[in-house]
Specification:
Elements (H helix, E strand, L loop, with lengths): L1 E7 L4 E7 L4 E9 L6 E7 L5 E5 L4 H13 L12 E8 L10 E2 L2 H9 L8 H14 L5 E5 L9 H4 L5 H7 L8 H15 L8 E6 L3 E7 L2 E5 L22 H9 L3 H10 L2 H6 L5 H9 L3 H24 L5 E5 H6 L1 H9 L10 H5 L6 E2 L8 E4 L4 H15 L5
Helix pairs in contact: 1-3, 10-11, 11-13
This protein binds adenosine-5'-diphosphate, acetylphosphate and magnesium ion (MG).
């Protein structure tokens, strides 16, 4: 059985085609700059050279058509017909309180996802475009949606409620939802397997540090608290997002700078974080390079960024009344030796002892970077959100009567 995984953004569409018999990736790729003057398509078949081409792709239906053409192309393709694709799985960022697990796409499910547009205006409308584009190109293929928020639906009320009038929760569902749940679920499960211990027996903090970044406290195998909130803006400092700040800053700055709601939203989501403090870049590689060359603003950005992660790890150790394992994952967490060192150096009081040599090793597999005698085990676990989406899709399709 072959499953196509799609992560549709407003102007991009990333894809991976899996053979679920052995969970191998047959091809992956992305369409960027959809709707702009020149779209870039990058297609990477597993056993053939990468192809890149530039053309005009005005909307998502055409983007999906192009992906299907590439997957079945005589020269660059990996399957002979689209009938070989049994199901499509989509990443959907916001599932609100409606979706506690992945779901088969039906008309009712689409209605519910539309109701959540307001809570994730940057993400959910784009995901819906991806779902509709697949429907148009492959009308008979079942689709499954996998939500970033689903894993966090186990949080207790004390973690997910904001201390504001309850009527706002009842009327508008204002609460913490949390994101990157697919990643936090995947890496915590991988960590338990690596340590050969039952997942339920470990108190862990999973640090997903990528472009977007979040920490999750995982207790009894479930999300207990997480740093992102109603939207993916709260919590850690990120590439271009501010993370936590005093909410009073928002009306104050709007007033002083004469900013509209959408302008202040854009400032906090797109023009803050590493980018704002360094004045250089949102990319951690550029920040560390500049810091090594003596750039003071880059150093400040790095220090603020790592300090925030440390604060969350400490807070969650207290929240869970204990901590066994810290996990680093995603683009920065998996690759930045200096970031992991900076975070762990301030956690010796908890019993974290980093092994510098292990931390410096470059590897793509799950590994321990703490010393053997460290009271807290620190792991680097490569995330794989797409694989988990493919697995959920496969499981749901097999369960659904349509497939049998
Ligand atoms: N070797 C590296 N050192 C430090 N940061 C890195 C390295 N490689 C990638 N990154 C960071 O990873 C980020 C992307 O992470 P990723 O998890 O792919 O993000 P997203 O899925 O949110 O786009 C980039 O912005 C870059 O800063
Ligand atoms: C929810 C979120 O922040 O996603 P990403 O890290 O892909 O931006
Ligand atoms: Mg990501």
């Amino acid at each position: 059985m072959k499953v196509l995984v799609i992560n549709a953004g407003s102007s991009s569409l990333k894809y991976q085609l899996y053979n679920m018999m052995d969970e191998s990736v047959l091809a992956s790729g992305r369409v960027e700059r959809i709707g702009m003057d020149s779209s870039i398509v990058t297609h990477e078949p597993a056993d053939k050279p990468e192809v890149k081409n530039v053309s005009e792709i005005l909307e998502h239906t055409t983007a999906v058509r192009r992906v299907l053409d590439l997957l079945t192309d005589a020269k660059h393709g990996v399957i002979s017909s689209i009938n070989e694709i049994h199901a499509v799985g989509h990443r959907v960022v916001h599932g609100g309180e409606t979706f506690k697990q992945s779901a088969l796409v039906t008309n009712d499910v689409k209605v519910e996802i539309r109701k959540l547009f307001d809570l994730a205006p940057l993400h959910n409308p784009a995901h819906m475009m991806g779902i509709l584009a697949v429907e148009e190109n492959m009308p008979d293929i079942p689709q499954v949606v996998v939500f970033d928020t689903a894993f966090h639906q186990t949080m207790p009320q004390q973690s997910y409620l904001y201390a504001i009038p309850m009527v706002l929760y009842r009327r508008h569902k204002v609460r913490r939802y949390g994101f990157h749940g697919t990643s936090h679920a995947y890496v915590s499960d991988q960590a338990a397997k690596f340590l050969n211990k039952p997942l339920e027996s470990l108190s862990m903090v999973s640090c997903h540090i990528g472009n977007g970044a979040s920490c999750t406290a995982i207790k009894d195998g479930k999300s207990f608290d997480t740093s992102m909130g109603m939207t993916p803006l709260e919590g850690l400092m990120m590439g271009t997002r501010s993370g936590d700040l005093d909410p009073a800053v928002v009306p104050y700055v709007m007033n002083k700078e004469d900013l509209s709601v959408s302008e202040v939203n854009s400032m906090l989501n797109k023009h803050s974080g590493l980018q704002a403090i360094s004045g250089l870049s949102s990319d951690m590689r550029e920040i560390t390079d500049a810091m090594n060359e003596g750039d003071k603003n880059a150093k400040l950005a790095f220090d603020m960024y790592t300090y925030r992660i440390r604060k969350y790890v400490g807070a969650y150790a207290a929240a869970m009344n204990g901590l066994d394992t810290i996990i680093f994952t995603a683009g920065v967490g998996e690759n930045s030796v200096v970031l992991r060192k900076a975070v762990c150096e301030g956690l010796t009081f908890l019993g974290v002892e980093l092994d510098e040599e292990r931390n410096s090793e470059r590897s793509k597999v799950t590994r321990r970077i703490s010393t053997d005698s460290s009271r807290i085990t620190v792991l680097v676990v490569p995330t794989n959100e797409e694989l988990l989406i493919a697995r959920d899709t496969y499981a749901i399709i097999r369960e659904s009567s349509d497939y049998n």
